[in-house]
Design a protein that fits this description.
The chain is an alpha/beta fold. About 40% of the residues lie in helices and about 20% in strands. The chain has 2 domains: about 1-125, Up-down Bundle (Four Helix Bundle (Hemerythrin (Met), subunit A)), CATH 1.20.120; about 135-360, Translation initiation factor eif-2b, domain 2 (Rossmann fold), CATH 3.40.50. The structure holds 5-S-methyl-1-O-phosphono-5-thio-D-ribulose.
């Protein structure tokens, strides 16, 4: 997608051993590229959320495995580097899925070929991620056109989204945003309500900026306003991403998603989840088994922003020693989801969603 009119992906290779990523800790204030040359640097970039979002942490970890394959002198050492990558963030299944996929590709080839094999597999994972997201947009487009056709002449389709399941969370296009970009390209008029997404403010810092860069009208709202906007009839549709979807269709996504789903159901607003199939976890019967990441309380007690002099500063929001609990994700029960949209189609039943993924 575009930054200042120039096309970018969130991750690319520079030379054989240098993985470049956009440092998302600095957005929207500064665009800086991080160069990762060691597996440990990749692990740190994921853990510290320089890169974040389910698809992107998967693709980045795959490239971490490429670096690991160059560093490891034995299969045991490679296994331990894979473990280090997987341990960085527990909720989004794409991470472990991508690491294991590169590991399996290496295992199928002679040990001496491990670096080339890992590089090729990591590149394929990144390309597939971008292609899957583009396809999600096309799968959702007919539904959006139908919905837009019911609006009074000249009124935009009003979509609410939570967190950043945009192109910044993937290699390109995004999951929740891909339908928006497809709709924009098809000439539909859109207006997006962007949840700020406390505590790390991915909505305020990333989604609002990302949509501005692509020329889609958006309005930032406090996380708690969504329900009231739905009551007032000012939301036509909620589209969110996912970090892991269990076999019964329960969806783990950024904390706050569940409350949006409850408000949507109470107000008869459609609630869609957009995800590539790499986010499906057929090994878990339901969302109760999805590990929920607990992050530092400091993400709640402190906040970062830019002051009037252009300095980025962190300030404390509460009294020192305030106890805080920072769970990063919640689980939305499948019964509250109207549609799951993947690269393979639009589904209203979890069984059909998993069956289609299996077929491809
Ligand atoms: O903690 P993050 O920023 O890595 O969280 C991931 C997310 O951005 C959201 O949960 C998103 O909606 C799903 S990731 C495509």
């Amino acid at each position: 997608m575009l930054i200042d009119g120039r096309p970018y992906r969130t991750l690319w290779m520079q030379a054989e051993d240098c993985v470049c990523v956009i440092d998302q800790r600095l957005l929207p204030w500064r665009l800086e590229v991080l160069e990762l040359r060691q597996c440990a640097q990749v692990a740190a970039a994921i853990a510290d959320m320089a890169v974040r979002g389910a698809g992107l942490i998967g693709a980045t970890a795959a490239h971490g495995m490429m670096l690991a394959a160059r560093e490891a002198q034995s299969p045991a050492q490679l296994q331990s580097l894979a473990g280090m990558l997987i341990a960085t963030r527990p909720t989004a299944v794409n991470l472990a899925w991508a690491v294991k996929r590169v590991q399996q590709a290496i295992e199928r080839a002679p040990w001496s070929h491990r670096a080339e094999v890992a590089r090729a597999e990591a590149a394929t994972i990144a390309d597939e991620d971008a292609a899957a997201c583009a396809a999600i947009g096309q799968q959702a487009l007919p539904l959006l056109k139908t919905m837009a056709a019911t609006k009074p002449q000249g009124e935009p389709l009003r979509v609410l989204t939570h967190c950043n399941a945009g192109w910044l969370a993937f290699v390109d296009h995004g999951s929740a945003t891909a339908p928006l970009y497809a709709a924009q390209a098809a000439g539909l008029s859109l207006e997006v309500w962007v949840d700020e997404t406390r505590p790390r403010n991915q909505g305020a810092r990333l989604t609002a900026w990302e949509l501005q860069q692509q020329g889609i009208a958006s309005t930032l709202i406090a996380d708690n306003l969504g329900g009231q906007l739905m009551r007032e009839g000012r939301v036509d549709l909620v589209i969110v991403g996912a970090d892991r979807v269990a076999r019964n269709g329960d969806v783990a996504n950024k904390v706050g998603t569940y409350l949006k789903a409850l408000a949507a159901r109470d107000n008869g607003v459609a609630f869609w989840v957009a995800l590539p199939c790499s986010t499906l976890d057929a090994s878990l019967a339901n969302g109760d088994h999805i590990p929920i990441e607990e992050r530092s309380p400091r993400e709640l007690s402190h906040i970062e922003g830019m002051d009037e002099s252009g300095q980025v500063r962190e300030v404390q929001l509460c009294a020192p020693n305030t106890q805080a609990l920072n769970l990063g994700f919640d689980v939305t029960p499948a019964r509250l989801v109207d549609r799951w949209i993947t690269e393979h189609g639009v589904f209203d039943q979890a069984a059909a969603l998993f069956a289609a993924a299996q077929r491809h």
